[in-house]
Known about the structure:
Blueprint: E1 10-18, H1 24-37, E2 41-47, E3 50-57, H2 59-70, E4 80-85, E5 93-97, E6 117-119, H3 121-128, E7 133-137, H4 141-145, E8 147-149, H5 163-169, E9 182-186, H6 191-202, E10 208-211, H7 214-221, E11 229-231, E12 233-234, E13 241-242, H8 286-304, H9 313-322, E14 329-332, H10 337-349, E15 353-357, H11 365-370, E16 378-380, E17 385-386, H12 389-399, H13 413-435, H14 446-463, H15 476-491, H16 493-497, H17 502-512, H18 515-520, E18 535-536
Parallel strand pairs: 2-5, 6-10, 7-9, 9-10, 14-15
Antiparallel strand pairs: 1-3, 1-4, 2-3, 8-11, 12-13, 14-16, 15-18, 16-17
Helix pairs in contact: 10-12, 10-15, 13-14, 13-15, 14-17
Amino acid sequence: MRAHIPDPIYLTAAFYKFVHLPDHADRRPSLLAFCEAHNVKGLILLAQEGINSTIAGAPDDVHAVLAYLRSDPLLADLEHKESFASKPPFHRMKVRLKKEIVTLGVPGISPTHRVGQYVKPENWNALISSPDVVVIDTRNDYEVDIGTFKGALDPNIQSFSQLPDWVQKAKALEARDGKKPRVAMFCTGGIRCEKSTALMLENGFEEVFHLQGGILKYLEQVPPEQSLWEGECFVFDERVSVGHGLKPGSHELCRCCREPLPAGAKTSQAFELGVSCPRCFGQTTDVQKNSARERQRQWEIAKARQINHIGTPQRQEKVAALLPQDAPILYSFRRCPYAMRARLALLASGIRCEMREIALSQKPESMLSASPKGTVPVLVLKDKVFEQSLDIMQWALEQNDPSHWSTVGKSHHAQALEWVSSCDGEFKNNLDRYKYPNRYELTDGLRHREAGSVFLQQLNTRLMSSACLMGEKWTWVDAAIAPFVRQFARTDREWFDAQPWPALKGWLENFEQSAAYLEVMHKYKVWHQGAKPVAFPATPEIN
Length: 543
């Protein structure tokens, strides 16, 4: 009896677009959070020149991510290619920032300025069959090894950035009778050809063509009996390769170099499952090979136990052990000084929380339900919600104050409140307008820098007579004010360092070099509904 083959349930969407995205770095947190909230996995590259991606998941979830992207007018016409698989093509979701979405390394080459002529898949055969056309495969050598178009030139490159040098030296591209040849270029999905044809035009080639939608669109649309494609097409996911109709191919992946196994690899002495293949055997050290052997051993144990090794379940068990039952939930934003002061007090009191790092542009519904004001920090207890940073600090120190941070009941408590009130009032007002003058329709923030300096001078005078603001030991007052002084100093560090405030600068430096500072500035991934709990502090031994 034939084994049952499960129906394809994972939709893979590949897409790219060259478009000017000056704010590409700001887009990353909310895009990653949206993908994770929909359990979509894969890789998205963001650069100033555009977006490049392959993602996979349940069809409705993948389409939700595509709709989210297209809701931006700059990406409204984003096109994508689809294929289906019965196994998840990716195990993680990553959104990475790059200088280029595909690295050519030649300044000034931009497909938004000029690009070769697109040729639809149904017209491609006629073009590349013409004897006066030079057909170039722009992909890496290991991709070409498992399949290419009949008669195509293989530049034998290991990375796309090597193509410009090959173009300069290739005899097939030399001019004949004073005229350069017609050129047809192709790649997996079309993105490389956007840049490679722009490169050719820049180098004086007048008739430059490229396959619209790349090899994948050709294999999807052109029937096998009419095809000039030979072999399979390498893809950068767990399918490894695809054939006509984008059906998964026969190739396997070397888990070390992430390239398809060459013919006869498994019979080679250089092949070891999960460790090396003939291509990469000589490129890794014995230490790296032993590490790969241990990774392979853990994977085989997980497979035998029918548990998921990808995603390090051991780490999740450790996190669960760090979080007590009914642990407080802290909604936070790493760089916000209000959230920073709250984290400092929670750390000092030894209170463990479930950390939920948010993206300010996409605040989670659970946070807004708990605190409609929509600002961080927010601390959610079993029976209470704290929406103000000073309330969180006070509550934490009421629970436990091993370092004697609290000034309640002490003679200088009124003075402590006065310092923090000055910080949160006039100084914060000046800080905002100094750091973000455009928000307040100001030409610059220099007037507010000078006004804010009055408070900093007062701090410096105070710190000339004692190591900390309330004496020789750090208290909640220092923790409440230091994040705001840090933000002021970082707005123009050169200017700040030039000021005659040695005591203040020493106090700030001690803060920024402390173990507590490193802990509260630990980077967490943006939280999304359904994400596994993450503990704060991340380091169990910090207290």
